[in-house]
User: Fold this.
Amino acid sequence: MDKYQNFYNVDENYEVPATMQALVMSGTDWNSLAVKEVPVPRPNQNQLLARVDAAGVCSSLLKILVQGSEHKHFNGWDPEMYPVILGDEGALTVVEVGKNVQDQFSIGNRCSLQPAVHRGPINHLERYNHNAKGMEFTAVGYTLGGCLAQYILIQEEVLEGRSLVRLPDDNIPYFAASLAEPVSCVVCGHERHFHIHQDSPDSPRQPVLGIKPGGVCVIIGAGPMGRIHAELVLRYKPAHVIVNDLVDARLKWMLDVIKPRANARGIKFHVAAGDKIQETLMGVSNGRGADDVIVAVGVRPVQQAAIELAAPDGVVNLFGGLKRGDHIIYLDTLKVHYDQVKVVGSSGGLPSDITTSLELMAAEEIIPGNHVGLVGSLHNAVEALQLIEAVETEGKTILYPHVRHTGLFESDGWTNEKEIGFLNETLNDS
Assistant:
């Protein structure tokens, strides 16, 4: 049996090592971030231990590195005193189960993870401000151990928050299960859009969730999350989709990968470079504007200008987060009052969004391999983050914690077959 199959088949005989590699943050600068050898955490009777089979690298880690204890999910937790393991995107396999949760999970269960845990802290209350009073959320990869490690302790908060989600199909590749989290953010974001529907002026109003069918949808930003937005808005069947970005290569990717999928559904797909968005939108919409505007970049002037793109009754989603201190924009209240434009936002999602994401992958509403830009080993975690900060990555970065040091390499359509071949070639023998 090859190494991949030995890795895949987890049972009661699985041997958990004493130590592991993990991306540890012990402060708020790049020198405090390193892949280190640390003890493997052991679960108590109410916890699980899971092996991390693949992990994504999210730009939100950069906010953690800057804000540290000031981050809302840290709420006073000092990483210098209590270092944390980062990583909020992961594909997991359960390897050890506490006796009090054996009715919920079993050794060998494959899972994805919703890192935004809708449960306040249970452990280490003294490390938070005011002993965690008033905290209703915790987060994996923040103060709960993260996925950029070879193993992860699934604590009570995660289980009570129902944030560990069983895969509906064990044949889902590791990288796809890891991508379920960023996809879930987009799924959640689209359901923050709502449009008021009336059959006639004298009929009742009905709110309808999601991107407007038959409408015009604008996506500003064609980076990793913008790519996912562009593919997933197609399931709502807008008449037109326009993607706007400053980088020609990103727009070319949209034309090469997403436009054929749009055309197959009868959706007209357009790209607009830089300040050409207004001209393109007015031509496509006959001067009316966009029914849905998704701002997938955290740039204040861009968010400011995006509101002016909305048509009457349109929705503007400020999906990209702004840096604290640079997060105030001016709102044209006449657009809100007279055009009845709605401004919404979203951050993260729920376990139900993870389930929906996995279902969308199974139905090929989204092809997860299209969104893998770089592949590597856990040793590349800091380099991957630095590339994200420098805006030198296209697509998501997937790291495999149990392979030998490989270096980062670009993926041209990552697939289950490529993943199997990569793991067979690179898995450590230990």
Summary: The chain has two domains: 3-185+349-426, 193-344. Residues 89 and 181 are 6 Å apart (CA to CA). The longest strand covers residues 48-57. DSSP finds twelve helices and 21 strands in the chain.
